[in-house]
Amino acid sequence: MPTDLYISTDIEADGPIPGPYSMLSLGMATAATYDGTTFRRLEPDTFYRELQPISPGFVPEALAVSGLDRAALARTGAAPAVAMAENVAWLAELAGRHRARPVFVGYPLGFDWMFTYWYQVRFTGGSPFGHSGHVDMKTLFAFKARRPVRSVGKRSMPAELLSGRAHTHHALDDALEQAELFCSLVAWSGAAQ
After folding, report:
1. pLDDT in tens, 63-109
2. What region does 95 belong to: left with phi over 0, alpha with psi -120 to 50, or beta?
3. What is the Cα–Cα distance from 39 to 18, expressed in whole angstroms?
4. How many domains in the chain?
5. 57: domain range?
6. What CATH number is attached to the domain comprising 52?
């Protein structure tokens, strides 16, 4: 049975979808491995890049969330092809070192997965996560808490599950925060029956 290597991922973007809008930063942190028997929490290895915008369009409210400066990133950000090649190489090195396959972990999954997967496929030709190697922490919590997915959020989680790290809207900070949340969620026995 192959081993999973869970990679907590967060991105900041200037709009709701990739292509017309840009991923401006990407943060990843290793969380754990699981071989079907043993779940092993890892000290985080991290990856962070700020990227040049790929399109002129942006949503001011989306851009304001991250506080990133598009004009500055156009000058100083990594070219998306370079950043994503570095990201894919980083993931391959980790996979080899841990003898495991990367699994994308997000909260909530959809937004961060959509941008990361699109950028990996668009700029490197494929994704180390494949098309389905991902876990949504919001769904994981909802099922363990025995609640509908649309009724839960971090505010509804027990305090002991949450990371002590602040949610800053800096992609690496938030990836590290989410790695801790993921490990807590996996260990949590869930709501009392």
Report:
1. 999 999 999 999 999 999 999 999 999 999 999 999 999 999 999 99
2. alpha
3. 33
4. 1
5. 4-187
6. 3.30.420.10
